[in-house]
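Predict the structure of Signal transducer and activator of transcription.
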Amino acid sequence: MSQWSQVQQLEIKFLEQVDQFYDDNFPMEIRHLLAQWIESQDWEAAANNEAMAMILLQNLIIQVDEQLDRVSQEKNLLLIHNLKRVRKLLQGKYHGNPMHIAVIISNCLREERRILAAASMPVQGPLEKSLQNSVVSERQRNVEHKVSAIKNSAQMTDQDVKYLEDLQEEFDFRYKTIQSLEQNDKNSALIKQEMLALQAMLNTLDYKRKEVLSKIGRVIHEIDMLMSNMLTEELLDWKRRQQIACIGGPLHGGLDQLQNCFTLLAESLFQVRRQLEKLDELLTRLTYDGDPIPVQRPQLLEKVNFLLYNLFRNSFVVERQPCMPTHPQRPMVLKTLIQFTVKLRLLIKLPELNYQIRVKATIDKNVSTVSNRRFVLCGTHVKAMNMDESANGSLSVEFRHLQPKEMKTSAGSKGNEGPHMVTEELHSISFETQVCLYGLTINLETSSLPVVMISNVSQLPNAWASIIWYNLSTNDPQNLSFFNNPPAATLGQLLEVLSWQFSSYVGRGLNSEQLNMLAEKLTGQVSYNDYQLSWAKFCKEHLPGKSFTFWVWLEAILDLIKKHILPLWIDGYIMGFVSKEKERILLKDKTPGTFLLRFSESNLGGITFTWVDQLENGDVTFHSVEPYNKGRLSALPFADILRDYKVIMADNVPENPLKYLYPDIPKDKAFGKHYSCQPNEVSKPSDGGGKGYVPSVFIPVSKILNDSTEPHSPSDLLPMSPSVYAVLREHLSPTAIETAVS
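Done. Here is the predicted structure for Signal transducer and activator of transcription.
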């Protein structure tokens, strides 16, 4: 079943989540019509490879054209209209930046997998639940409503200022007319009446000036309160959601909404600033005793400028954290002399700023806060922000060719690179720029989340563990000394993040039973609600009786799944995380030949299968094969191993003992679609391959003695062609075959 088919079967509350991340950037119609084709492409790799992204974009347009031809024949007018619109969108919006559509589709597929994983969980995890708090959603709506109201108030004040200007011009004209009269004419009753009218008009002017200043003051106060409270909280929440998304959590949305709020507030402040400038202009033409403008205007202007400074400073954000294109699901881990990408955005989107802001990237700007290791950035580290590179027209800049290079210490050698010292050192990439607009000059600075610098890819697993622990444990964006005394983490939240590693990296998260097994492995107990786990227990201390840590063991399993058994994992046929004791409880009452698949607890990156059998006296026995690691699985696909596996019991011919996948799924029904070819048939030498050779295959064979239930050695995997095996069966007794195998 395709991923999209699974999505369509979700409950309505999960479908609503899916609906949130499909928009005009990637319409849901295309996801639906091209589901299988889209899922068969490597969008993740294309997101960091421009040539590959361009090819996929062109192929996507071809696929849309084919759908357009089909619906044209069916005369489906609505679908024809939508597909033409989508085709125009793809050609216009992404032709200059094909990697952007690859990023969008990759993120959508990843978020679908996360939602599917969440739907399979009995309860929502504590972290995800906090991110989807209804109070947060209500605050988002309130912010948008208040920003809209402020914008309307500023526009209404514009009309008041215009009325005031018109009133003052009329007053000025009538006053100058009287002043131009002869002295005798000024004493007439008509002129005295006009003077009284002018005095009334001046009183009205004074009242309107005070009213306009009061309205301007209220608008400024509303903006100040909104920025100080709800907008600041919204921005902090977005940054927290970004942290969680970086370690595999739900995709963080809401930046476009924040951009809209920041931009409208900036426009309102600049509008108020122009209103104050207009009042100053009116002041130069007319003033009087008790005039409120010279008293109130300087204070209001100072407050407006202060708010603009703060708004701009908060609007400069890292939209996409530093990430190596070679490891898109391991952001914030950077390898020396390997390029990484990072994207920044100014949330105040004003046309006047397009190509006017140049951003400079540096590393470890505040060197006193970091380790003895020093780095510099090589490559293009100064670029201009623009609205042309982003599909949504945001004012942003993406650095794509930065490389960190480690500097030698004064002693002439590089810094200490112990196994944990390097991966626990945190560094910061900083960005600075200057905005000059309407007479204001504002210096802006921001920084990435802490990154870990490695010099060898073997350090990547522990470096990623550091990134997980940091972003799980704190929302402080710049605590570079965090690992001097790393805090403990709540086990419930950690297990949720571990499930995200599986859903984001290998397409299927962990269920409650699998998480319970991990909890027991970490703590020795299944109940873990409020258990606090130390950093050392997670990543530094060896598991009891083992030569590796918990994290190294788990990372090896992720790597095994990704490279060798991914389709079987996604289908949900690998139980994986189950102890030997639990597997026997599960299998003991099952039909002989029932088996399950689990990851080895004693071997790194190993998977084994255990099946239940019944002796002649009715006793139940269990058999487990030695775990298959990536070396053996590189030679033979795991599904083929399950299909072709044979055991030779004493006095019996070889047979496949694997009949039903736990609990009762026929083996071929579960794994049939993953077999590399049909089950091997016996071939005669004359039917063989080229040049008279007999076709050969690897057949995994084990020998089991009557009293043996122990795992078997790697030598159990023997190369044997079907024809040779047939000849053996034809000419040799089972005992002789057993002797030969021995």
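The first strand starts at residue 316 and ends at 323.
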